[in-house]
Amino acid sequence: MTAVQPGLASGPGLRELLAGFGQDGAGGGPVITLSVPAADLEDAVRRIAAYPGARLADVFASGGSPAGDGGPVTLRLVWGLDADRRYLITESLVEGDSYPSLSAIAPAAFAEECEIYEQFGIRPAGGRPLNRVALPPGAGPDWPRLGRAPAEPPRDVHAPHHVGGHAFEFPFGPVRQVAVESLYYGLVTSGEELVDLYLFTWHKHRGVEWRLRGMTPGEALFYVERTEGLGAVGNSWAFAAAVEAALGLEPPPQAMTARAIALELERLYNHAAATAALCQSTGLVIGQAAAEIALERLLRVNAAVFGHRYLFGVVDIGGTRADLDAAALRSDLPGAYGELERAAEALMSTNSFLDRLEATGILTEEAARRLGLVGPVARATGVAADTRADHPAWPYGEFPLAVAVADTGDVLARFRVMLVEAAESVRLIGEIGRAAAGPGLALPPGAGPGQPASSGLGWAESSRGEALAWVALDGSGRITRARLRPAAVRNWRGFDDACRSQNVFTDIPIIEASFWLTVAGTAR
Amino acid sequence: MPLWTLRGLRRGVVTTRYPARPDASAQLLPTPPAFRPEVLTPRLADRLAAVCPSRALARDGDMLVFDVGACTACGRCRAEAPEATAASGEFELAATARAYLVKRIPLGGRPA
């Protein structure tokens, strides 16, 4: 376990990279946008992927015609250039039915290639089979989509799996147990050891991005916040920041301070919940009770400070809605965090617990980088990526962050990273909270000094990692396309890799608890 | 394991005596709205029905139909018309029949 202080210097090759695309300089903003002809996309992806520290953060499409008349689709790739503290967006207009395969160069793009085929009917060249990711079997051409329907339905996700020899397929879900989200596991096993695993998440797909079209950002925020209930602050901050970038709004410092405190409170209660889930999955019921006491107290801190146990209604476009009760924060947080600290100390000296975590669900740093994983899952493999440090929004840039990383990539490493992050969150809340002096935390929507723009990218470091949102607005300020990319979207693709790393059946719940993802976040 | 037993004994009981005694933390929970019939008008009822994301509110003639079973206590109706709504404070919503959760509230307000 080490703490890394990320460097502040810009990468020396950025200007050279951009010059290769005919662009002079990176400009002063944190987001660089490049227009790349679809024919050159393959070469562009190779060049950007080879740039030191570049990671593919998201791929999505917009445009297209629901009427199926073949309207052009714009393909956007969002790259995190973390060393340079920039995001790079490439925009490519796809006129026909296909585009160069991106996952052949950047494997992290495969899930999005499948999603884009489902939603927009365009597919990567090469004819590689695509999986079903969001829409259920039987979703015909009339099913609500962001674009036109594909010519053929995608194959079911289990189609490429071959079960032979002594192995058999064990179906589990989508209804699993009380108060656990719908998720279907296809477990291929020889009896104890897990041979293969696939997931269906479409039972929970709600078409949120489709529903947001035509709404005002203020109307949409309500649904964005509820897309993933355990990530309300992270996702709504990313969405609000995207709208603010599009409109040129700059939230007042007090509001940003309140957002940061809410985000750290969200991280705290999620890490406490993950700790309780780890105890439950290892059969340590007394440890689970101890962690749940901490969780309940942290949720009550949220309610006392911001008026909602799950921090709904805090973030607004251009600021914050909920006022912050600083006195409640000062008086209640130390006791609540003390519960978590004491439970964690006891857990870290319980060998029967640690034995179940050690060397379970191993992910390598190479896999984390290849799949574009984020958050504690990536940091536990040694990837020191954290948008609070790499792409800091105010006030994070003012308070140096020690990014928690580990290098073994197993469940124990993820647990340790979460515990260090929880301590860091409490420290940050204390420091940021002292800086919040002004009354009135909200800027009324529309009162900003900015001027309308067409689109914007926003981000926040949620408890699960980098949450991204991209928003396009029309001239009347209504949403034409909203892309929501919670951290869960990235990290589920690493889950099956972790499960296959010489684990047995009973390790799966432990690995799932250590990832602490939501189905809602990915099946939005 | 003795560590956890001792720890549990030292920590003592943390659960509350609810329902024998009220739980103080209940006041922190979001609860469904309570409506003031004397303020509700047909136009206001339509506005409330329009903002309700879970379609728990609808107008039926001179009645506001409130399906408490569909309400998620999101607070949008309270934000839309604070003069006509308040938090009910009611979170014990179990009923022996689904129909008992549907309330019909007369629109007794004078149209503006």
Shape of chain B: elongated
Radius of gyration of chain B: 20 Å
Kindly report the average pLDDT value of chain B.
90
Main sheet characteristics of chain B: 3 strands, antiparallel
Helix content bin of chain B: 10-25%
Instruction: Walk across the major sheet of chain A and give the strand order.
Output: 2-5-4-3
Helix count from the secondary structure assignment of chain B: 3
CATH architecture of the largest domain in chain A: Orthogonal Bundle
Walkthrough of the structure:
- The complex is a heterodimer of chains A (524) and B (112).
- By secondary structure, chain A is α+β, with helices and mostly antiparallel strands.
- Chain A folds into 2 domains: 7-124, Beta Polymerase, domain 2 (2-Layer Sandwich); 208-522, Cytochrome-c3 Hydrogenase, chain B.
- Chain A contains 17 helices and 16 strands.
- Chain A has helices at 14-19, 41-49, 110-120, 208-212, 217-225, 232-247, 253-281, 285-306, 326-347, 351-357, 365-371, 375-379, 387-390, 411-435, 487-499, 508-515, 519-522; strands at residues 2-4, 31-35, 54-63, 73-81, 86-94, 98-99, 123-124, 168-172, 184-189, 194-200, 315-316, 319-320, 403-405, 455-462, 465-473, 479-485.
- Chain A has a 4-stranded mixed sheet with strand order 2-5-4-3. Chain A has a 3-stranded antiparallel sheet with strand order 8-9-10, with no helix packed on it. A 3-stranded antiparallel sheet of chain A has the order 14-15-16.
- In chain A, helix 5 (217-225) packs antiparallel against helix 6 (232-247) and helix 6 (232-247) runs antiparallel to helix 7 (253-281).
- The longest helix of chain A is centred in the middle third of the chain and has 29 residues, at 253-281.
- Chain A is globular, with a radius of gyration of 22 Å.
- By secondary structure, chain B is α+β, with helices and mostly antiparallel strands.
- Chain B has a single domain, classed as 2-Layer Sandwich (Alpha-Beta Plaits).
- Chain B contains 3 helices and 5 strands, in the order H-E-H-E-E-H-E-E.
- In chain B, a hairpin with a 2-residue loop joins strand 2 and strand 3 (63-67).
